[in-house]
Design goal:
Blueprint: E1 4-7, E2 10-13, E3 16-17, H1 18-25, E4 29-33, H2 34-47, E5 54-59, H3 66-74, E6 78-81, H4 84-92, E7 100-102, H5 109-118, E8 122-125, H6 128-140, E9 145-152, E10 174-175, H7 179-187, E11 192-198, H8 209-227, E12 234-236, H9 254-264, E13 271-274, H10 278-281, E14 285-295, E15 307-310, H11 319-323, E16 329-331, E17 338-344, E18 353-361, E19 368-371, E20 393-397, E21 400-405, H12 410-415
Parallel strand pairs: 4-20, 5-6, 5-13, 6-7, 7-8, 8-9, 9-10, 9-11, 11-12, 12-13, 15-17
Antiparallel strand pairs: 1-2, 2-3, 4-14, 14-15, 14-19, 16-19, 17-18, 20-21
Helix pairs in contact: 2-9, 5-6
Bound molecules: ligand LLP.
Amino acid sequence: MDHFGFRDGVLHAEDVPLPAIAAAVGTPVYVYSAATLRRHARVFKAALSGLPRVHLAYAIKANPNLAVLRLMANEGYGADVVSAGEMKRALAAGMAASAIVFSGVGKTEGELAAALDAGIGQFNLELEEEGEVLARLAVTRGMRAPAVLRVNPDVDAGTHAKISTGRKQNKFGVPIDQAPAMYARLAALPGLDLRGVALHIGSQLADLAPLEAAFGRIGELVRALRGAGHRVERVDLGGGLGVPYRADDVLPTPADYGAMVARATAGWDVELQFEPGRVIAGNAGVLLTRVIWVKPGPENVEGVHPYVIVDAAMNDLARPALYDAWHDFIAVEPTSARMVANIAGPVCESGDTFAMGRDIDAVRNGDLAVFRTAGAYGATMASTYNSRALVPEVLVDGDRYAVVADRVSPEALIAAERVPEWL
Ligand code: LLP
């Protein structure tokens, strides 16, 4: 459920009409709903309330805007970060260092040191050597680094190949059959405080069965580790719960997920950690755009449609170009008329296409429209390709709104570049 809806024929974000934001801030612009973010944060938390010990670490890669992070901190969430940059954001937004989990398959020695110095709550180790480096850095600081070992359970999450992470050929985690011996070696290092294991098998999961199978394997591993005399206090179950991108998508709900977790982890006696990203932010944002042209196609060619050229492009919302992802496209002030069209941006690539042959609200030059479900992996994946401005972000809360990220102009981008004097 989200708080984007029509009032008097005009699409609103909560109590704010989207044309007002377009007039004040321009387009394209991401618009987030604070009420939706809060609702998702609370629904997810409530779904896990029956579990004994829980730590919630919002996967900030999904939407790392500072205002979004502050809102999540206010909801009692910590953060899952994957770079020093994300760590700095989480801290800047007021999240406690101890509530931050540092994931990521390629943390540099500099990043590990910075995170130790910041007092990060947990390092999710991706390979044995990383644990050795972290232990050494901790010893030189007179510390013991809190860590868990990320395990690759070799389960096919059944999602898009580019966002699957839990099969043995993926780059993530250590092979589950090697985990017990590795755990024993790492647990013996004086600079490490090895507390448990982690997994994350993929994103936009539409089926809970692969997750349950993976959790089952982790449960066996936890028993084996304890059987060998190791301490296992924490299991990080990652993120991955999918969201509906189309009206008729049927996905497991947070409550379904919570019930499955309770079943799969019964008797583990650990703190369970969760790293939700998309399920919090996905449906809490839209990308507001203006139609530049409706460009007719060649006449009388079957299956060829007009192009609706909008002012948002693949550099603003990369998901369709990267993963063939579907984002609903609706007019901000629709009439009852429909049209079949291709929707594309101004970037000079045929890949800059959001949809082909889609049945949409009829639109004309100058009309406003939105791409829905763009709150996660939207603005954060934007670039300035074709020297387009970096897309701004707006947060709506009831009847007020604020620009929470400026449009970064081509002038500002040019100002960060240099032409050497010898040219
Ligand atoms: N934890 C770890 C270790 C992860 O790698 C991820 C996502 C998450 C948590 C959060 O997963 P979520 O709950 O959001 O599914 N750019 C892609 C998605 C990449 C996800 C990467 N890892 C997209 O636009 O679909």
